[in-house]
Amino acid sequence: MRITVFGATGRTGRHLLAEGLRRGHQLTAFTRRPDALADPAALAGVVVGDARDPAAVRKAVDGAEAVISVIGAERRKGPYPVAEATAAIAEAMADLGVRRLVVTSPYGLVADRPRLLAPLLRRWLAAPFADASAMERAIAASDLDWTVVRLPLLTNRPARGRFRTSGELFASGPYPLARADAAAALLDVAEAGTFARTAVNVAAA
Fold it and tell me: 109, 122 in Cβ contact below 8 A?
């Protein structure tokens, strides 16, 4: 597939590029830091810019069959760009006729376990969770074939090669997930298209 990856040089985006190339996809990387790309020559394209810039986003999306966004805040204290950037991506996709969009969101936004910790987490992360919630509402109102992939705490540990995927909340956990496994899950969702216009939860198996 021809896939555009937003957030390509982030900690998860790097795994997404590596796994996408391993699977034989034609990848366009969108980033503000092209010098951080491990192997730019292996990519179909590199677009440098801010994902809130409609012109740069449009350039990256044009010709894609699917878009995967792993954009996040650079710092815990913000700013939080996800909702604004995703709105720009969705608008460009609609204009260009690109329908498949896969975005990440925190599982903690909907988690009900652990029962004492879940509400505390939502209070502690109120600002980034509000940004993610606004993003989810915006794409849900679009006509795109979108999927929200809700992820738990991500780690830099080696991939385990397996994970749980569910449309329902997890009865236990969820346990932290390796970023490499998260990348594999995102590509699985983009390739299959079976979770269009819904949210799916992913966690370590």
Answer: yes
User: Quick one: tokens of 163?
Assistant: 């994970």
Model confidence pLDDT, tens digit, residues 66-90: 999 999 877 666 688 999 999 999 9
d(CA 7, CA 172): 30
Handedness of CA 167, 171, 177, 180 (dihedral sign): negative
DSSP letters, the chain, are -EEEEETTTSHHHHHHHHHHHHTT-EEEEEES-GGG-S-GGGSSEEEES-TT-HHHHHHHHTT-SEEEE----SSTT----HHHHHHHHHHHHHHHT--EEEEEEEGGGT---STTHHHHHHHHTHHHHHHHHHHHHHHHTSSSEEEEEEE--EE-SPP-S-EEEESS--SS-PPPEEHHHHHHHHHHHHHH-TTTTEEEEEEE-
Judged against a pLDDT cut of 80, whether residue 184 lies above it is answered with yes
pTM beyond 0.90, yes or no: yes
Cβ-count burial 5-16 (b if 16+ within 10 Å, e if not): bbbbbbebbbbb
In the chain, the domains with their CATH numbers are 2-204 (3.40.50.720)
Q: Give per-residue pLDDT as tens, 21-33.
A: 999 999 999 999 9
pLDDT for res 172: 80
Mean pLDDT of 110-120: 86
